[in-house]
Design brief:
The structure is a homodimer. Chain A is α+β, with helices and mostly antiparallel strands. The first copy, chain A, folds into 2 domains: 69 residues, Winged helix-like DNA-binding domain superfamily/Winged helix DNA-binding domain (Arc Repressor Mutant, subunit A, Orthogonal Bundle); 132 residues, no CATH class. Chain A is built from 11 helices and 11 strands. Chain A has a 3-stranded antiparallel β-sheet. In chain A, strands 4-5 form a two-stranded antiparallel ribbon. Chain A has a two-stranded antiparallel ribbon with strand order 6-7. Chains A and B meet through helix 1, helix 2, helix 3 and helix 5 of A and helix 1, helix 2, helix 3, helix 5 and helix 10 of B. Chain A binds a DNA duplex through helix 3 and helix 4.
Chain lengths: 240, 240
DNA sequence: CCGATGCTTCGGCGGAGGACGAAGCAATCG
DNA sequence: CGATTGCTTCGTCCTCCGCCGAAGCATCGG
């Protein structure tokens, strides 16, 4: 009994509503100021300051002072990954957030998930890539096929550079709104960067939602042309 | 703001020391009774009962009544995965459990991690498999090579059967004591089952530690002949 | 049957920690 | 140089929730 690192402390840290809201806001991948995070969490500035100090001390967020602002961001992909996992567990119980705002549909359609895309469009892309043989899923793992490599290369994504990092190239990430996987990992990030750089999608200021531009709609439709074809089986590659 | 499933509730649930201890105990993979979990968490039976009810309601654990006992176990690999991730975050801050008991070295040497092996030996095996070309790591993903497939087949592990499931065959799982990856996934589980079935390791009753038997030591040395790291010098294998 | 064991519900106690207002520093602006 | 903004520290209040003891149901053994 009582072996291993004390997960209770970290979990309790994430378990406070105000702090959880802050972390959730940081899941969009951008760095936010203390004031923004205070508003995001719905608490006063002093309260937020205390929370952020604790999150920083635990190594969950990193701070960068810029003038009279202090920018906070998640300290790494592992933090984002745990938060995602917690979202999955929370979604499993059916307990969804109790305030479905008017922004909800946009959020469901396309949003950022730490540093890659999530939502309907992301799931569509993922399934289209599988249907087109650009991605392959075997034994619960996703990998890029030769066809996929040349496809992304032709589209202007430097796959070879991504493969030099230790980060997994492809990663099936369970989408909490669709309950189906979308593409994460280095390639997932590259695709989001690509889509933003070409103005296919535009990050919104106040939320994780991604606005899809008209040219972006055409481009995404082109990429996902074969998504409607029935898939042999959905792959949910979560778990150890 | 405030979008997505409410992770705060789940995290707060895990964030209580007593509940975290219970979940940690269940990480060994076995189902435990309410009384055992109460002792594990260091709380009274009524307190434990309340905690377990909440964990069950949130879907983190499953209950099975058997006579006058109620057996609890983690509800799935995703829960175990999140717990592991939290361990990683906790270990990152350097805040380790404050009571390093006498059992600690054994625990560091070999233990279960939900349903596969962890600790020094698990890391050694993982690295040896990589060195021998039985596993391949590319772009952060681990996969079984043809050589590995025939190796495990010759050793009596039915790899083909594992590939029919949706669970990832190979998964690099960060070892919190070694800070280096070991093998999880379906193959990781199969290897642990194999080692237990052949009495190479023996699960201990009171902890996640695995006792390595003398024949097990020989077998593991054979499997890990080409690991980069020097062999663990000590043998703590008592007879069965 | 009766006693023992395992687990749960109930009620009351107590402490940890999250909330805010006021005040204090730092940085930017007119 | 004041004035304003952004953030932090301090002190205090108060709610929440984890804890246990006692009692109440079930199950198993004789």
């Amino acid at each position: 009994m009582k072996e291993g690192p004390s997960i209770a402390a970290v979990a309790a840290l994430i378990g406070d509503p105000a702090r959880a809201n802050m972390l959730g806001a940081l899941m969009a991948g951008r760095a936010l100021t203390a004031g923004e995070l205070a508003r995001e969490a719905g608490v006063s500035a002093p309260t937020a300051s205390g929370h952020l100090a604790r999150l920083g001390q635990a190594g969950l967020v990193l701070v960068e002072a810029q003038g009279r602002h202090r920018y906070f961001r998640l300290s790494g992909p592992d933090v984002a990954h745990v938060l995602e996992g917690l979202m999955g567990l929370a979604a499993r119980t059916g307990r969804l957030r109790t305030r479905p705002g008017p922004r909800d549909p946009a959020l469901r359609r396309a949003r950022t998930c730490w540093d890659h895309m999530a939502g309907e469009w992301a799931v569509r892309l993922y399934e289209a890539f599988l249907a087109d043989g650009r991605l392959a899923a075997a034994a619960g793992q996703v990998s890029l096929t030769a066809a996929g490599r040349s496809f992304f290369r032709a589209e202007g994504i430097d796959v070879a550079a991504l493969e030099t990092t230790r980060r997994p190239l492809c990663r099936a990430c369970l989408d909490w709104s669709e309950r189906r996987p979308h593409l994460g990992g280095g390639l997932g990030r590259a695709i989001l960067d690509h889509a933003v750089a070409r103005h296919w999608v535009r990050p919104t200021a106040e939320s994780r939602a991604l606005a899809v531009t008209p040219p972006g709609l055409a481009a995404l439709r082109r990429w996902a042309a074969n998504a409607d074809k029935p898939l042999p089986a959905t792959i949910a590659a979560t778990g150890p």
